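Researcher: Let's run the pair from yesterday's discussion. Sequence first, then C-alpha cells, for each.
Model: Starting with the first of the pair.
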Amino acid sequence: MYRIYVYISFLFLICLNDSVVSAENTDEKNWRKGILRDEFIYDSTSFVSVHAPTIEETPSGLITAFFGGPYEGNPEVNIYVSRLVDNRWTAPVKVADGIVNDTLRKACYNPVLYQVPRKELILFYKIGKNVQDWSGYLIRSYDHGMTWSSPEALPEGFLGPIKNRPILIGNTLICGSSTEDKGWRIHIEFTKDFGTTWTKTDPLNDATWGIIQPSFLLHQDGKLQFVCRSQNEAVVSAFSDDDGKTWSSPFALPVPNNNSGLDAMTLKDGRFLMVYNHVKAAESAYQDRKRTPLNVAISNDGIHWDASLILEDSPIKEYSYPSVIQGMDGMVHIVYTWRREKVKYVKIDPSQLMAVPFTGEMWPF
C-alpha cells in the first residue's frame, strides 16, 4: 500500500512539474506574442564592440546604422550601415569615421537615420573624444543608402537628433537633442531645409531633472510629447502645443528607467509604443550596465502604459539603446544593442500585441 502511495505521489509531482513548465512556456510565449522575426544583423565583423543602432525605411527597404570599433570612445570607432536586401541583411559597411584633419581623429557616436519624404536619406552622427566634446555631422544618400556624400558639419552648438529619429511637422524637421557638459539638459533643434540651417530652443529642464535623448509622440489633437532617458529612475515626459517651440514642465511617468536610452513612436492606429528597459537602476539584476530586461509597452494616451513584450531578460550583459519605426506595411521594426557585441533586429505585428496593466510600476509577471 505504501509503495502505491509513493508511486501515485511521484506521478502527481511529475504532472505538477509539467503543469508548471507549461505555464512558464505559456508566459514566455505570451510575452513574445506578435514577434514575426528575431535575428542578428550580422554574425561576425572586423570590430568587436557595437552600440547605438538606428533604423529607417527607404523606398528600397530597411536600413540600419550603428557605431562600431574596439570600444566606445576609441578613435577607431566608425559608423557602419547594413541594408535589408532580398530578405537578408548585408554585411556592415563603413560610411563615416572620426577623422577631423590630417593629425586628429576622434570617435564616432550615435547615428540617427531619417528618410526625407521623396528625397534623400540623411544620417546624423557625432564626433568627439567623449560626450562633452561632441560635434554634429551628417551625410546624405541619394540611392537609399548604397553610397554617401562627404560629411557636412552642423553649425557650432548644434548636434542634430541626439539618439532618436526626428519628426517632420509641416516643412520643419524637429530634432530631440541634449547635452551633458553642464548637467543633463534637453533642448529641441529645428531645420526647415533638412540640415542646412538650424535654430533651437533653450534648455527645457533645470537641475531638478537629469534628462537626455528625447523621443517624440504625436497625438491626434496635434500635441507633441517627448519621453526620455533620465537619472531620476523613471521615464520623464513633457508636452508641447506649438510644434516643439515651448514645452510644459517635465514630469515622471509611472514607468521605470534605468538611466539608459529608449525609443518611442506613434502607431498608425493611434496607440503609442515604447521600447525600453523596464527596471530602475537600483533594482537591476545586472549591476554593471543595469540594462536588462528590454521591454515593449503600449499606451493609448502617452501617460498610462501597459506591458506588451519582453524582448530580452537575460541578466548576462546588456540589451539597450533601441530604435523603432513602423513600416509602410504596418509592421513595427526594432533594432537594439545586444551585449555590445551585435545588433539585434526584431519585426513585430502590432495588431497582435498584448496590453496588460502594470501593477504599480512592476511588470505583471
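Model: Moving on to the second of the pair.
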Amino acid sequence: MTRWLSFWVGWRFYRARQSNRFISFISFASTAGIALGVAVLITVLSAMNGFEKELEQRLLGVVPHGELTGVNEPIYNWQRIAADAQQISGIRATAPFVRLQGLIQKPGGFQGLTVVGVDPAIEPKVSNIARFMDKQSWQALDQQSNNIILGRGLAKSLGLKVGDSLSLYTPNLTAKQGNGSRIGAAKSHRFVLAGIFELGGELDMTTAYISLSYGAKILGLGEGVSGVRISVDNVFDAPRLIRDLGYSQQQYMYLSDWTRTQGHLYQDIQLVRTIMYLVLALVIAVACFNIVSTLVMAVRDKQSEIAILLTMGMTKVTVMGIFIVQGALNGLLGCAIGGGLGVFIAANLSQTAKGIEKLFGVQLLSADVYFIDFLPSQLQWSDVSLVLGLAFIMSLFATLYPAWKASRTMPASALSGR
C-alpha cells in the first residue's frame, strides 16, 4: 500500500481539483495545449512523410536515379555499361536514352523543351513514366515513328490534343563553317502528338518523350546513344553507385544523379520538417509551463492537507510523488487526446484536404508549381511514439519544481495559517 500511496493520493488530488475553478481552468488549458501541440505535430510529420514518399515514388520514379552521359561523343556500346552495372550491388537496372534540347512555339513566344528518346521495351526498368499515361500512348513510341508524348500542362498551354502536329526547333548541329565551328542555324522537326502524361510540376511543362531510334536519327548518332539511365535499390546510395560505375569506364563521361537535379526538393522537405518540429515542440513546452502554474497553485491550495500528511509520517519523497502524479496525469491526458486526434487527422488528411478544396473552391497545391497537386500523408507509428514520448517527458519535467516545493512545506506554519 505504501508503494502506491503517491499514486492513490495524487489521483484523489487530481479529481478534487474541481473545487477550485481557477486551478481547474489552468489545468484544462495545459491539457488542451499539450493535446493541440501533439495533434498538430503528428499531422505535420505525417504530411512531411507523405511528401517524401511521393518524391521517391512519383518524381524519382520518373526522374532517373543517375545518368552516365558521353563527353563530346555518343556512347556506342551501352550494353557493356549495362553489363558492368550488373556487377555492382545496389544497381537495379539500366536503359539507354538520347536527349535533345529544342524550342516549341506557343502563343506569345517559344517554350524550351527537353526531349528524351527512350526504348519503350527497356525504359520501364528504370522509370515508371508509363504509369502516368494510358497504355496506347506508351506503345505509340515505336521504333519507326515521329510520335511525341507531352506533359498535360504543356499540351494545355499549347492548345494541343492527341493527333495534332507540332514543330520542334533544334540547333543544326551538322552544319559547319569553313573553320570547323558549328553554325547556330535552327532546324525544324515535325512530330505528331501521340499521347499525354500527367505527372505534375515542372516535368509536365519541360519534358517530352519520343522513340530512341528517332531521337538518334535526329542527332545523327547512328547506333549510338546520348547516355545510360540508371535506377538503384536505395535512392540515397545513388551518388556512390553512379560514381563507382562511372569510374570503371574507359570513355570520358559526365556523372549525374538525382541529388543534383532534384535534391533541393528533398532538402526543402527536411528543412520544413525540422523547423516545424522545433516550433511545435516549443508549443508543447509552453503548454507544459501551464502544468507548473497549475501545480504551484495546487500546492498553495493543499497546504493544510500536505501538512497533515507530513505530521502523519508521510515522507517528503512520497509528497513529491503525489504532485508528480497529479501533473503527469495532465500530461498523459493531453498526450492521449492529442495522439488520438493527430492519428485520426493524419490518416484522413488527403481526403480532408480534397473536401476543403471542393467546399471552398480553392487549390491547396498547384501542379504547375509543385510536383504533386494533392496533400499527401503517411502516418508512421515511430513518429507518433516520438511525439508522445517527448510531450510526456516534458510534462514530467514541469512537475519537478512544484513537487519539490510541496515537499518543503513546514507543517507547523501551514497548520497555523502563517
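Researcher: Give me one sentence on the second I can quote.
Model: Residues 175-181 have pLDDT under 50 and may be disordered.
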